Amino acid sequence: MRSRTTLAAVKNRDSQRSKVYEAESLVRTIFDRADERDLRTVDILGSTVTLPIERKFASLDSVQRYVDAVSRLEWIRETWPQADTVVHVRERSGTGASHYERDTQTIAVPLHRRNEAWALRELVVLHELAHHYEPPDSEVPSHGGEFVDRFVRLVTEIVGHEAGFLLRATMLESGVAIG
Q1: Distance in angstroms (rounded) separating the CA atoms of residues 69 and 158
Q2: Cα–Cα distance between 102 and 46 in angstroms, integer?
């Protein structure tokens, strides 16, 4: 019989993390290509959607202002009590992925990779906010179904329904559990 610690570790394993990142990367690529071609209409899984504009940020200050504004939205505060706590934004050293630091309630964002500010964008910031809005005593995997549901809802309500549809469809097509 397994010990309690081992069972908790199995329960909390972040087994769909790579699938979430892969699906999110594909969605960002679709948005980037739409921007490059100035063609906002895309076909996704048999549906034609017109993508909204995804916000891009010029600095950490602009990311912080965006995070503060989103967290002040009434429906956000009513849905996720954690939104009442201040989240900080800082530069992440290196060029790796952005991440959320629960102990300091901080979003760490790399500024540039190969002379490109790839992480200073709305989809990345909303991903990290979905981590911040997780209940503090939660024992579910960091990229589990509850996280994905928060992330998709944020994208749907803030970026737009078409973006939310694209993200949800891509997640499901990649085998990501939602909810």
Answers
A1: 11
A2: 39
What pTM value is reported for the model?
A: 0.87
Give whole-number Cα distances, 95 to 10, 45, 113, 120, 122, in Å.
30, 32, 5, 12, 18
| Closest among 150, 158, 155, 153 to 134, alpha carbons compared | 150
Q: What is the DSSP letter of 84?
A: G
- Other CB atoms within 10 A of residue 118 CB: 18
Q: pLDDT grade, residue 87 (50/70/90)?
A: very high
Residue among 120, 116, 104 nearest 63 (CA)? 120
Over residues 32-44, the pLDDT tens digits come to: 998 888 888 988 8
- Calculate Rg over the CA atoms of the chain: 17
Q: Which residues contact 86 (CB under 8 A, 6 or more apart)?
A: 71, 105
Has residue 171 got a pLDDT over 60? yes
Distance of alpha carbon 62 from alpha carbon 51, whole angstroms: 23
Q: Average pLDDT, stretch 143-149?
A: 92
d(CA 143, CA 141): 6
User: Could you give the CA distance from residue 146 to residue 117 in angstroms, rounded to a whole number?
Assistant: 29
Show the tokens assigned to 74: 């009434």
